[in-house]
Design brief:
The structure holds two protein chains of two kinds. Helix content of chain A is 41%, strand content 15%. By secondary structure, chain A is α/β, with parallel strands linked by helices. The radius of gyration of chain B is 17 Å and the shape is globular. The chains are: A alpha/beta, B alpha/beta. At the A-B interface, helix 2, helix 5 and helix 6 of A face helix 1, helix 3 and strand 3 of B.
């Protein structure tokens, strides 16, 4: 019945930030805090970035996913080895969802960051020629929620589906849309009027 | 309903020592939090209305939902499915006066004693407490009016239908149903009628 805990290491510039994150992660179910240099390497490394993404990002190790805790970002491109960006304005318990999502090999982008990127991307993107009618109703629904900046868990919760089911739909969507990231898929949704939330 | 092409869900029903009959009892919610987090079901069907859950109004729910299940759901991949059809949450149909009221109160006291003795998930969901609880609840329900019995039955049927809908919407998953132990026997009987779409298993085998 017991599932193995996801090992999480905490890193960053300030001891107080690290201590706060460690206490939060330790309080979340199914997660275990380990030292960054532990062997085998932690499944997830949380890196507290300060207010902006800095150049001194941690080195990625095999089997380890990096989640950056950020204030704001300027580029829709994730730095090399980084699997997710978690905004400081998210609810603390959402960190557990983000850690699980990247531990499964997926990417994570906080809703506020996703919306900010999409607003910028919408202005810059080249139009995609795509026939939305080949998507199922459920796929269109999920694509619209993704373009609203929702995480996989939030989409699943909204539709009362499991996270695994949503991830399966997203994998199919990416293939059909011929895209490789959430942001690309969301931009297509916006271009085709599937979402109205972007201001 | 044709569920032959869809995989069956594995579904466990977990009875909880609720604040039954609106008489709060003190017990360790950490036990419930850890149990649900360790089970990590895909879907968690819980006793809260859809309106309350989507509106974030947890004040109308039982303490287990408010202080144990909701925090676990917020921090994990578990998706909560609200299955309570109405806000009439407890079978608090105690007659206002007369000997029936006195007997119901006496049965309540016996139930509270049983709850204090069965203070672990294994005990609450075990055969001994199940028989004890079921007997007391059956006796209590015999003292209700026909209208109250009908209302209780209708609510349980609607809950079973909501659970079945959740299973049909996303077949083949691991589903945990948490409910106050007073519903346990009724809901299990109702859910067994859906054996084409779900397999009922012990919560320890989910």
């Amino acid at each position: 019945m017991d599932h193995p805990s996801i090992t999480v290491a905490i890193s960053g510039r300030y001891p107080l930030d690290r201590a706060g994150l460690a206490a939060l992660v330790a309080s979340l179910p199914g997660l275990r805090v380990v030292p960054p240099e532990s062997s085998p390497p932690p499944r997830v490394l949380l890196w507290e970035c300060g207010e902006k993404l800095s150049a001194d990002l941690p080195r990625s190790l095999p089997g380890m996913a990096i989640l950056l805790i950020v204030g704001e970002i300027e580029s829709p491109i994730l730095p090399p080895g980084v699997a997710g960006l978690f905004s400081k304005d998210e609810k603390p318990e959402a960190l557990g969802v983000a850690i699980r999502q990247i531990a499964r090999g997926d990417q994570y982008l906080s809703p506020s960051l996703a919306l900010a990127l999409l607003e910028r991307g919408e202005a810059e993107a080249a139009p995609h020629d795509f026939d939305m009618s080949i998507l199922t109703d459920r796929e269109r629904q999920i694509l619209a929620l993704l373009a609203d900046g929702l995480s996989n868990k939030a989409i699943a919760a909204r539709l009362y589906l499991s996270v695994r089911t949503v991830e399966g739909h997203l994998a199919n969507l990416y293939t059909r849309l011929d895209v490789h990231s959430r942001t690309e898929a969301a931009l297509i949704a916006i271009e085709h009027g599937l979402v109205s939330r972007i201001k | 309903m044709n569920a032959s092409a869809s995989p069956r869900a594995r579904l466990a029903v977990l009875g909880m020592l609720s604040d039954l009959h609106c008489q709060p009892i003190a017990y360790d919610l950490n036990c419930l939090r850890k149990l649900v987090a360790d089970l990590a079901p895909d879907l968690l069907c819980a006793e809260i209305t859809r309106e309350a859950w989507e509106g974030g109004d947890l004040f109308t729910t039982a303490i287990e939902v408010r202080e144990a299940l909701a925090p676990v759901v917020a921090a994990t991949d578990i998706v909560l499915v609200p299955v309570l059809p109405t806000l009439t949450q407890y079978a608090d149909f105690t007659p206002a006066t007369g000997w029936r009221r006195d007997v119901v109160r006496a049965l309540d006291r016996a139930l509270q004693w049983g709850q204090r003795e069965a203070d672990r998930p294994e005990a609450v969901n075990g055969a001994l407490f199940g028989a004890f609880c079921h007997t007391l609840c059956a006796l209590t329900e015999m003292l209700w009016t026909a209208e109250d019995c009908a209302a209780w039955e209708a609510q349980n049927k609607a809950m079973a239908e909501n659970i079945s809908q959740a299973v049909r919407r996303d077949p083949g998953l691991r589903v945990l149903v948490t409910l106050q132990c007073q519903r346990l026997h009724t809901l299990l009987s109702l859910l067994k009628a859906h054996s084409d779409e779900l397999e009922i298993v012990d919560y320890r085998e989910l």
